[in-house]
Records
---
Amino acid sequence: MDALCSMLIVDDSRIDRTLLANMFAESYSILEATSGQEALAAMAERKVDVVVLDIDMKGMNGFALIDAMKADPSLSDIPIIVETGESAHEEPALLRGADDFIAKPFNTTVARRRVDNIVTKHVLEREQLQAALRETELLAAHRAQELLYAAEHDGLTGLYNRAAFCRKTAELLKSRPHEAFAIVQFDIERFKIFNELHGSTRGDEVLKAIAQCLDKTIRDRGVYGRMEADHFALCLPKDMALSDNLATQLELALANAEAEHEIVLYFGMYEITDRTMPVDIMCDRATLALRSIKGNYNTRFALYDSNMHQSLIAKHTMKAEGERALEKREFEPFIQPIFNLASGALVGGEALVRWRHPDKGLIPPGQFLPFFENSGFIVRLDSHIREEVCCFLASMESSGIASVPLSVNISRLEFYDPHLCDNLVDLVKRYKLPPSRLRLEITESAYADNLPQLLQAMGKLQRFGFTVLMDDFGTGYSSLSMLRDVPIDMIKLDMRFLGGESRNRAREESILRAIVPMAKSLGLPVIAEGVETRDQASLLESVGCDLVQGYLYAQPIPKDEFLALAVRETAKNALKQKA
C-alpha cells in the first residue's frame, strides 16, 4: 500500500486506537480523533484517504459521522471502514454509506486485507474517474476547436468567413503598424448564370479553385476570406494588391478548373489610410469600387477614391430622404395611358412612380429608382404605389366613372416574400376591387432570377383573378423560353427592341412581324410600349398589334389628369351608345 495514504482512526477508546494504529502504521500515515466532531475538524485541516471509525462514541457517534461525511461533497468520496463488536451495527452502517467493516476483537490479517481492498478500490476508481475527466476535457477541447473553426470558416472553401476576416484583418493591421495595406474585394461576373448553365456542383468547384489559389498565392502575407456567394475579400500589402500577379494566378487556376466557359473577375481596392476605421467599412469601400466597374469588359480593376465616397454619402442621403418622403407621401403614381391602336380608345394605364420633392420639385425617376432598386427600398415603394392606385381606382368606381385596368410593378425582390400573394389579395379586397382591375407587371429579370417561387406565386394570383403581364419583352436574353415556360396573360413589347441603326432595321422589323402574330396565336394580347414615332405606330398596325403606350400618344400624367381623360372617355362612350 502506498505509504503516502493517510488513515484517520476515530474511536473514543484509547486502547482500540492504539491497536489500530499499530496494525496499520507500516502502510498508512496515522491520524487519530476521539469523537465525530474532532474527526470532522481534522478532515477540514488535511487530506484523509480512509476513515476507520467506531459506532459507539459519546457525542457524535459513528452513524452521525457517516451521515455528516456523506452530506459534505468534500468528504463524501472518502472510504469509511466501521469497527464494531455488534453485528446489528453492520447493516445500518452499510446502508448509510460505509464501505466495509472490521469486527472486534481485531483479526490483523483480515482487517488489513479489508481496509487495503477498499482503499485500493477507491484509488482505482479515482484514477479511472480522473482519466475519464481528462479524456472528456480533451474531447471538449477538440470539440471546442471544431466549433471555433466552423464559426470562423466558410464550410465550402475553408476560408475565413466575413466575421473572422474582419477580426483577423484588424489583428494583422495592429501587428504590422508600419506596413502599407489595402483591402481588395473581387467577385465573378454573372456567376448565377454560370451556375444555371453548368450546375451548382461545377460552380462550387470554381469557388474551391479560387480558395486553393488564394491559399497558395497569399499564404501568410495577408488575410483572405469568402464573404458570401462568389464574393471574396483580401487584406494584402499594398504592393501585392497593386500587382497583376494575383489576378494572373486566379485566371490560371480558373482555366484549370473549367474549360467550357470564360470566368470574368472584377476587383475593387481600398487603400487603407485610417487604421481606426472598422474593417467592414473598409470592405464596403472596396465593394463600392468594385461595383463602379461591374459589366465593363474594358476595365477589371477599380481603386476607391473621394468621388466614390461622395457618391456613397449621396446614397446614404438618398436612403434617408426616401424614408422621409415615403412617410410624407411625396411619392405618387403618374399614369401613362394605354390605347387601342385602331380606335384610339383608352383601354388601360400603367402606374409609374414620381417623387414630388417639397424643395426640388418633381424628381425624374432615373435619379432615384436605380438606387432604390439596389437598396431594396423599392419593395416598400412599390407597395405604397399599389395602395395609391387601388385607392384611385376605388374612387373612380364610387364616382360612377368607367375605370380601366391599371398595371403596377412587382419587383423581383418581392417574390422572396412568402406573404406577397396574400398581401395583394388583401389589397384588392380592402378596396372592393375586382382583381382584373389591378394588373401585375413582372420584368423578365424576375423570371430569370427566381423562377420556381415566381411560378408558384403567379399560379396563386391568377387563380384569384389577377392578370399577369411580362414587362420589357424583347430586351431579355431568354424571351422565347419564358413564353414557353411561364403562363403569362399579356406581353408588353418594348419598342427599344427597334434599334436606331438602319443596317439592322429590316431584320428587327422581320422579327417584330414574327413575334406579334406568334403571341396572338398563343392567345396573348400584346401592348407595345415606348411608341414614340408615327413610323413605329404604322409598323405595329401592319403586324396586327392592338394596344399601344408611349409618348406618341401620351406621357405619364398625374392622377387628376388621367381622371379627366377617363371622364372624357366615359362621355364619348355614352354618346356612341345614344347614337
---
Amino acid sequence: MRQTSTAPRNNKLKPSSNLIMNGSVRVRVIRTLLAIQNGQSLASVLDPLLNSLHDGDKGFAHALLLTTLRQWYALERLLDSLADNSIDEKEVRTTIQVGLTQLLYLQVADHAAIHETVEAAKEIEFAHATGLINAILRKVAKNPSKFRKKCDKKHSLPNWLAYQLKQDWSEQYDDLMQGLRQPAPMFLRVNTAVTSVEDYQQALVEFEVEADLVELTSGFNLPNSSDAAASNSIVTKGLRLHQSTAVNALPQFAEGAASVQDMHAQLAAPLIHSALLNKLTVKSDDADGDIDTNNNEIRILDACAAPGGKLAHWLELISSDESSLFHVKQDDAETSPVISKVKITAIDNEAPRIERIHTNLQRLNLSQHDLQQAEKNIELNIVCADATTWQGAGKKKSKLVFDAILLDSPCTATGVIRRHPDISILRTEEDVEQTALLQADILHNLWPQLKVGGYLLYVTCSILKQENVEQMQDFMTHYNNVAAVEFSDDCNWGIEQAIGRQCLPIDSESGDGFYYALLHKTAE
C-alpha cells in the first residue's frame, strides 16, 4: 500500500542521518525525533538509530522513541502548561518531552531521567536551557501520577485530526482517542499452503511463543450467487502474539511458513478471492458469459501492491484453492475445466517498493520462478507503474481486462497510527483532501478496465470517512454500472457503513483501522 508522503512546512532544520549515530542514547533519540519533525518517516530513521546502539541499549531507545511519539501532543500540551513563557526552540521542547516520557510512562528513576536529560541538552549544544529543563522535570517528578492523569485525560493528536475523528466517530471517539495511544498487537498470517494455523500455533508453543487464535467471519450478499452458503461463510484465521517477537525467533519464518500482517489486513485477500470464485461460478452457468473469451484465462490486478502482503496472501489462496479455481462442479457432480491460467498483475509506482514485493514473495516461495517450479497455472507480472494512468490492456482495442481488482488505495494511514505514531506529526489537514483526489483518480482509471460481472475491492488503512465511505459514495455517482455489495450480519468485525465496513483500532487486542468496500460491475 502506498502512503502519502508529507513533511512539516517552513522547517529549515535538516538533521542528517549521521547525527543519529553518535552521543548518548537519549541524544540519539532526541535527534531522531528532530529528524521526524523535519519530515523523515519513522521507518527511515528507526533502523539507523537502533543499529548505532549496543544491544543492551536498543530496547530502551526503542521504547523511549515510540512512547514519546505516541504521547507527543499530550506531552506538548502538558509542557505548555508547565512553562511560564513560551518555549519556541524545537530542540529544547523535544528534550523536555523525552524527559517527561521517562518520568510519566517509562518509570525511569527520577534522578536518572532528570540528570541524563539535562546532560543530553548539553550534548546537543543547548546548555543555556539546562536550568529550564531541570526545573520542569523536577516539578513533574514531585507528583508524576498527577501529571500522568493530566496527560492521559485528553487525546494525543493534532487538533485538526481529533476534530475530524470527533465528527466521523462521535460514539466511538473516547475509546478511539485512547486506543490510538497504545501499542498495536503483533499478528501473524500463516501460509496455509504450507501448514495449518492450528499446527503453526502449536509450533510457536515449542519455541516458547504464546499466541491466541483469532477468527474473523465475513459474509456478503453476492449478486446471482449459485451457492449462498459459500458466499456468506468466509473465515479468516490468524494468530495474535501475547508479546511482540523478533521474526528470527519464529519457527520457519525464513522458509515462508508465516508472515507478520495485521489481522484486519488479512481480510483483503479472502474477500476478493471469494468474490472472484463467485464470478467464475456464475459465468460457468451463464451461456452468455464471458469467462472463456480470452483463451480460458482469468486476469486479476493488485493495484498499489507494495510491500506485497495482500498479494502474497492472495497467491497463497490461489495456490491452495487451485482445484476449485480451475474446475467448477456441474449438475452431474463431475468437474470440468473452465480456466487454463490465472494471470496476476501487481503494480506500484516506486521501484524500491517493487523490490520489497519481490523480496517478500521470494521468502514465501511465491515468485514467478517458484510458481513455475511448482507447475502452477499462475502467471505473475509485477510492474512499476502509476495507477492513475496505467492501462492493463496496453494498446489493445478492448480495455475490459480484469475479472477482479484489489485496490489497496493510497491513504493518510490514520488507521495505523499505533504502529507508525510519526503519522500524527507528518500528516496535515491538506493531505486528506489531496489524498482523496488521488484515490478518485485511481478509481476512475481502474474501473473502466474491470470486466462486466467483475469485482473491485477497495481497501484503505484510514479511519477518515472522506477517504472511505464518502469516497465510495462520490464514486458511485459517476457510473451507472456499479453496485455496492452489502456485507451480511455474519461479519464479526468492523462497523457497518452506508457502503462497506470500517474497522477501528480501539482496544489492545484489535487490529488496525481498515476500511473495506466491495464493488460489483453490472451491465451498462
